[in-house]
Design a protein that fits this description.
Elements lengths: L2 E9 L4 H12 L4 E7 L4 E7 L5 H10 L3 E3 L5 H34 L6 H18 L1 H12 L5 H22 L8 H25 L1 H8 L4 E6 L2 E6 L8 E4 L8 E6 L2 E4 L1 H4 L5 E3 L4 E2 L4 E2 L4 E7 L5 H13 L7 H27 L4 H14 L2 H21 L2 E3 L2 H9 L2 E5 H5 E12 L7 H12 L7 H4 L9 E6 L3 E6 L2 E6 L1 H6 L14 E7 L2 E12 L3 H10 L3 E5 L4 H10 L4 E3 L4 H14 L4 E5 L5 H6 L2 E4 L5 H6 L2 E3 L5 H30 L1 H4 L13 H20 L9
Parallel strand pairs: 15-22, 15-24, 22-23, 24-25, 25-26
Antiparallel strand pairs: 1-3, 1-4, 2-3, 5-6, 5-7, 7-13, 8-11, 8-13, 9-10, 9-12, 14-26, 16-21, 17-18, 18-19, 19-20, 20-21
Helix pairs in contact: 1-11, 3-4, 3-7, 4-6, 4-7, 5-6, 6-7, 6-12, 7-26, 8-13, 10-13, 11-12, 11-13, 12-26, 13-24, 13-26, 14-24, 24-26
């Protein structure tokens, strides 16, 4: 079975009901899995079996539902121009609707037109331009209702259409004695269009972070063919094409430098502001900026396969996911339209039974129909996710899905790997002891050790690589898991651990000051000559980060495969009181599962290496830091592009801010939808209160959607601690 993941742009969705109807329809297709339609981003994401389902069937299903599916744009600039044109048309229709609604309202309440019949004709005439401006609501809403898949447009079309038709009946029959509903129909359409235009504008701002990522790649590239240059659009580039990047220009695609020397600013990928030196053979990435020299390079990856493309895809996929907190809202939004139709009909019947006139009962039923807004419920979660995940991307925080974000916000325990996470991962010489009887100095011992370790693959060899040495060694032998042996100046040397010394019959006594360090024992002619103590260097920000986590109520734990003494030293330096040492990767994974089971809150694991991959996958949330391996990045739910532990605090604060906004949005959406309906139905008048007419209901309905979007906009201002 061969499966593929796809994301398509969906045109024509107008509310959360649209997205739920489309999602249900695509989910029914044989071979379709993990179907998600995001109203806020206007996208359809799914996994499907190529042997059972093809794209033509998917596109046909989308079209049958009344929408249009498109492939994601190859040229972001062109897509932005199209979006600007669509917004311009939307704005034009809104202006037409506002102008004629104002004129219609004046005609409806003007004392200058004393003849009620003439007033009705004038109002009907002025209503036609408003109906034309809001034509898309009827074109989409009525067919959806006839197909028994009503959405928000169905409610609005029924509300405005029923008001207009009923008023037309009164006008033709000549039975109207006071007021028509033409103005209410016009106000409903205009206020809905106004709300959608403002919402559209605000949603575009929320999605700005994604557009900024798309803009990182330049529009054009300089291609070298037969020693001549040609400027071509980036989307037409081919693999293995030779490109030239001048100072100040953006790199158009991932490539390998073939000639030239320069510095490239890779802050958009790594978050590090210092430019990186590039020489022939170096990799460069699309969207980064060439600082000073001229580079020629051969393209290795384009589009989705590039580093920038992978980041954009990761962010886009994450924005299309739903966290667990959204499930209730999704279920309610899915059946809300039918509930409102039922409540509207019930309102009409109950008021008629109570003895109220048809005009009064109709007015209340119309208000209920217009007041309902599943859009606010449908937007509450995805719009906050889009803003939060997008803002995270601009800060170098890549969140893979909504579940990881929610678990991160609720977490109570943060588990750190030691080597490469709390520490730099680069061992350094900490202490050196030379026995006087051996007759050499500390400097001489280090030079001999450095010369010997040049041929070693052991991680500790890196600690000696920085030492300049002119000592010659011969007869090098690597003793796997123990150390090395060699000859220098006619002497036999051993450099290794205590086990190597014991195997050679050499006794070792370790001074107390070497406790917690990894030791290299140095022996000449089977006599212990000295001890070199190497240790990993604690990240400068580690202690501050642990302290910051404690202040926010989070418990910090360290897991390591290192020995207990070394683990104790590291834990003490960064103020961690709970740690587990001597663990294999499997042991780490088991320990995390154990801690996750016993904890009442989700557990976060922070790591960077291949050996951390099982642990990252086992945790409720895995966070891989920027210098990590591909395995760690794949296993983690959140990736920090910077090699800086401050990002752990930042992502927790960001996730809590997003979850807070989601809860606020859901509260407002539920409060509005279930709080305004009694007043729309006129129940307030039974206790001497007030009721809402259709026009006011339309205004509050539009305001509810706009409120959740504007609330989510606050996340774009989220700032991290410096």
């Amino acid at each position: 079975m061969k499966t593929t993941n796809r994301t398509y742009i969906i045109r024509g969705m107008r509310c959360a009901g649209c997205s739920k109807n489309l999602e249900r329809a695509v989910s029914r297709l044989s071979g379709a899995e993990n179907v998600s339609v995001n109203y806020a981003t206007g996208t359809l994401s799914l996994t499907f079996d190529l042997s059972q389902l093809d794209e033509e069937t998917i596109f046909a299903t989308v079209k049958k539902m009344g929408f249009t599916a498109e492939y994601p744009p190859k040229d972001p600039a062109e897509e932005e121009r199209k979006e600007a044109l669509r917004f311009k048309k939307q704005l034009r229709d809104l202006v037409i609707s506002i102008v004629f609604t104002i004129l219609l309202t004046i005609a409806a309440f003007s004392n200058l037109v004393s003849n009620i019949q003439l007033s009705g004709v004038v109002q009907l005439t002025l209503l036609f331009p408003v109906l034309y401006a809001g034509r898309k609501i009827f074109i989409a809403g009525i067919p959806a209702l006839l197909k028994l898949r009503p959405d928000m447009d169905s409610l609005i079309a029924c509300g405005a259409g029923t008001g207009a038709v009923y008023s037309l009946y009164l006008l033709i029959s000549g039975t109207a004695s006071c007021h028509y509903h033409f103005d209410s129909a016009a106000m409903i359409l205009t206020l809905v269009m106004l709300g959608r235009t403002l919402e559209h504008r605000a949603r575009n701002r929320v999605s700005s972070s994604m557009r900024e990522l798309l803009k990182l790649a330049p529009e054009y590239a300089t291609v070298i063919t037969n020693k001549t240059e040609e400027k071509v659009p980036v989307h037409s580039l081919q693999i293995n094409a030779l490109i030239r990047i001048r100072p100040g220009e953006k790199v158009p695609a991932d490539a390998i430098v073939t000639s030239g020397n320069s510095y490239v600013n890779e802050a958009m990928l790594s978050g590090e502001e210092l430019p990186v030196s590039k020489v022939p053979g170096s990799r460069i990435y699309g969207g980064t900026v060439n600082v000073d020299g001229v580079l020629e390079a051969k393209i290795t990856a384009l589009g989705e396969n590039s580093e920038l493309g992978q980041i954009i895809k990761l962010v886009s996929d994450a924005q299309n996911t739903r966290p667990p907190i959204a499930k209730l809202a999704d279920k309610v939004a899915g059946v809300f339209t039918w509930i409102i139709f039922s409540l509207s009909l019930l309102t009409l019947v109950l008021w008629l039974i109570s003895g109220a006139g048809f005009a009064t009962a109709f007015n209340y039923a119309l208000s209920v129909l217009v007041a309902a807004c599943p859009c606010a419920l449908g937007l509450a979660t995805p719009i906050a996710l889009i803003a939060g995940i997008g803002r995270g991307a601009t800060l170098g925080i890549l969140i893979k899905n909504g579940t990881a974000l929610e678990n991160c916000a609720k977490a109570g325990t943060v588990i750190f790997d030691k080597t490469g996470t709390l520490t730099s991962g680069k061992p350094e010489i900490k202490k050196v002891l030379v026995y006087p009887e051996c007759g050499i100095t500390e400097k001489e011992l280090l030079k001999i050790a450095a010369a010997a370790e040049k041929n070693s693959t052991h991680p500790l060899a890196a600690a000696l690589n920085t030492i300049d040495t002119d000592v010659a060694v011969t007869d090098f032998v690597n003793h796997s898991g123990l150390g090395i042996s060699c000859k220098s100046n006619g002497n036999d040397w051993l450099f290794g651990n205590e086990a190597l010394m014991k195997k050679s019959g050499i006794n070792c006594n370790v001074p107390a000051e070497f406790s917690g360090l990894t030791l290299i024992f140095c022996a000449r002619d089977k006599q212990l000559s000295g001890i070199i103590g190497a240790g990993d260097t604690l990240r400068i920000e580690a202690a501050k980060v642990i302290s910051g986590l404690k202040k926010t109520g989070l418990r910090s734990i360290m897991l390591t495969g290192d020995n207990p003494a070394s683990a104790q030293r590291c834990a003490s330096d960064c103020n961690i009181t709970e740690f587990y040492a001597g663990l294999t990767p499997e042991n780490k994974s088991t320990k995390i599962k154990e801690l996750s089971t016993t904890s009442r809150t989700p557990v976060i694991m922070v790591g960077d290496g291949i050996n951390d991959a099982p642990a990252l996958a086992s945790a409720d949330v895995g966070i891989a830091i920027g210098a990590g391996t591909a395995a760690a990045m794949e296993s983690a739910g959140i990736i920090l592009k910077k090699s800086d532990l401050h990002g752990v605090c930042d992502v927790i604060k960001l996730s809590r801010a997003v979850l807070r906004v989601i809860k606020q949005n859901l509260f407002w959406a539920f409060f509005y939808n279930f709080g305004v309906l009694p007043f729309a139905a006129g129940l307030g008048t039974l206790w001497g209160g007030f009721s809402l007419n259709p026009a006011i209901c339309a205004a509050t309905m539009a305001a509810s959607s706009l409120t959740v979007v504007l609330n989510a906009l606050r996340l774009l201002k989220f700032k991290v601690d410096k």
